[in-house]
Each structure stands twice: as structure tokens, then as C-alpha cells.
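Notebook, bench 3.
Goal today: get a predicted structure for 3-isopropylmalate dehydratase large subunit from Methanobacterium veterum so we can plan the truncation constructs. The sequence was checked against the plasmid map this morning, with no discrepancies at the termini. Length recorded as 418 residues. Pasting the sequence as submitted so the record is complete.
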Amino acid sequence: MSMTIAEKIFAKASGKKEVEAGDVVMSNIDVAMTHDLTGPLSVEAFEKIGVPKVWDPEKIVILFDHQVPADSLDAVTNHMIMRKFVKEQGITNFYDVREGVCHQVLPEKGHVVPGEIVVGTDSHTCTHGALGAFATGIGSTDMSMVFATGKLWFKVPETIKFNIEGTLPEHTYAKDVVLNIIGHVGADGATYKACQFAGETTSNMSVSDRMVMCNMAIEMGGKTGLVEPDQKTVNYLKNRTNKSYDIIKGDDDAESLEIIDIDVNDLEPQIACPHNVDNVHGISKVEGTPIDQVFLGSCTNGRIQDLRDAAKILKGNKVSDSIRMLVIPASREVYTKALNEGLMNIFVDSGALVCNPCCGPCLGGHVGLIGPGEVSLSTSNRNFKGRQGSSEGEVYLSSAAVAAASAITGKIEDPRNL
């Protein structure tokens, strides 16, 4: 029987020879992640079960990233709850306030490898599918059951393969590709489906760029994002992990596979306009829109390549006096690389504010919020009402290059103009 990569991973995880889309299977979990915002709810639910110890303290990863350093008494309380849980359960993979955003740190630290089932109490856990794992977000109650048993029920999803072909024009990036796809498919166009990114364009992308696309699979309703592992995957994992893994590839004739062809040869920079991620337009339609804040960072576009792309544009230029710009690296590793490459000097000299690795204003609960009537241009993944502060504010989404160009002019700017 021919199977998709998602079906093959679930067959392996459930101990079955074959599964097909629509089957409900009990799957072994390889990695379970939670953070400071959703973790306390998982701990509370786990304690109600009455099981004294988690199933495997070495397969649980706990990070602080949403509100670090703690910005309120509630945040402090959440941190204390999780530190206590880590100590009581002997959880070995604990990253306190130092490391950065969970979806960047897990791959950096070698916790994600191809062919595994990765779950996290965060919807953007789908990011890790860029390494060929089936990674998805789950609720805090479901996570408590994973803590207790190491297993979880899943309905095996159908797969949409986005066959992306062509050469990206100047100043267009993976972010533009995925925003364009979401704009065409719609916010619910891939509901509970595995969104597989394939084709020559994807093959030519770095693992970092593949993470951008998988990160945003949830924004079209996807259960996960997926890229079949290749030599770039293997190279990325080298020196990051001692875990053994299987390179699993799907069959093109699998019955549950739908293929959508995407041509990027003529793609221009894309902008997701308020207040939905699928409200996507080419930059020529919204160029000149005044902004109040630029946010460069998040689990979508806070990686070293994003900082490099932005620094090239900002070097020798100044952030407009009419706005503020926040630069928030996704992890300490990214932060250190940016320091060593002199990128931070460029950002500081330009007038940007450089913050510690964290989620920043992305969730609307920490640094850099916008007020009523203010407009944010963000490299993050969501632009819902109130997402970055006031429900009377507006959020536009873009690539790092567009963010940098717009910071200079104080309005949404096509980087090809500079």
C-alpha cells in the first residue's frame, strides 16, 4: 500500500504495518514540549490524574520563552510552578529564561529528528516538520495524558503537497511563498491536513527557510507542516544530536495525497493585511501604508538569516524617527551569531531596540505592545485583532527584508526600491 510521509510516520508510531488517512491510532510520542505560558495548565491537569511520575523525563522538554524575563506576578508564578515540576520529576531537558523561543531551541538542541512524533502545547509546534518529523500542537489536557502515558490518540490526516517550482525573485523569501499559499488556500483551506512543501524551490531552501513555511501551516488550518528530509536535513542535524533516526519519504501515488502546483518565478513580496493571515496582497497594493512599529523576530522570522537580510538593508541607514523598531533574536544561539557577525552593531546604530531572545510582542502579552490606532509591521505569524496589544490596533505581516526597508521609511516599503 502506498502511503504519504505522514501516514508512514503514524504507522511506525502506532506499531502498524499500514495506516491510511481517517484511521484513528494510538501513537507513541517521541518528544513532548511545553512552555511557561501553557505549561502550568498541563501540570495542573497531570496532578489531577494522580500518576506520581511522568512516563519519561528525558523525552519532555520545558522552556521559558513567552514572558521572559517575567513581566508580571502571574508570569513569576508560572515560572515557579514549572521550576518546581522540573525538579520533582527530574526532567533533564529544561531551558530557563536564557535560551529563547521553543520552536527555535528544540531543533538547535537536537531534540527533533526525522520520522518522530513531536507534540507541544503551542499551535506553532508544526514548525518542526521542516526536519521531517510529524509535529503538532495539542491542548494542555492532552499534554497531561502524554506526561502520564507517553501516548496520544490521533486521526491520521490527509496530505496536501504544495509542489513549489521556480526561482524566487530578488527580495522575495520563504515568508512570501507561504503567505501567498495561505492567501490562495484560505485560513481553513487545509483544515486537519498535513501541509507538505516540496518541489525544486523547497529543495533549494535552507532548513531555516523550510521552518518558516512549516511554522505557518497552522495558519491555513493544517495539522502540521512537512518537508521530506534530505541531505540538508542531515547536515543540519550533524553535531546537534546523538539520536538515531529514519529518513522517511512519502509515495507520490498515495491515495490521500492532493497536489497543488505553485510557481514563484513572478512572485513579489507579500503582505498579510489586518485582521486575518489569509488577507494577503502583493506589496504593490499596500505600499506606502504608514506604520508605528516594526517587529523583527518570532518563531517565524527571528533566525540568523532573517537578521542578516534585515541588516544588509539597515546598514548605513537610520530607523525613521516616526516609528520604533524591535529586533528580537529567536534564540541565544542566533543572538550570539548576530553579535559575532556585527549585526547587532548595525541594528543599534540604526536606532533599533535589541531585546533578549523571547516571543516579544507576538502574543500580545510582553514587550513591545501597540496601542489603540497604532499599526505594527511584523515578521511573526498572526495578525488577529489584539494579537500584539490593543484590539483597536492593526498588524501587517511581512518578510524580514520588507520589515527593514519599512523601518527606514516609516511606511510599508518594497525593499526593491532601496
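Residues 112 and 215 are 14 Å apart (CA to CA). The mean pLDDT is 94.
Flagging this for group meeting.
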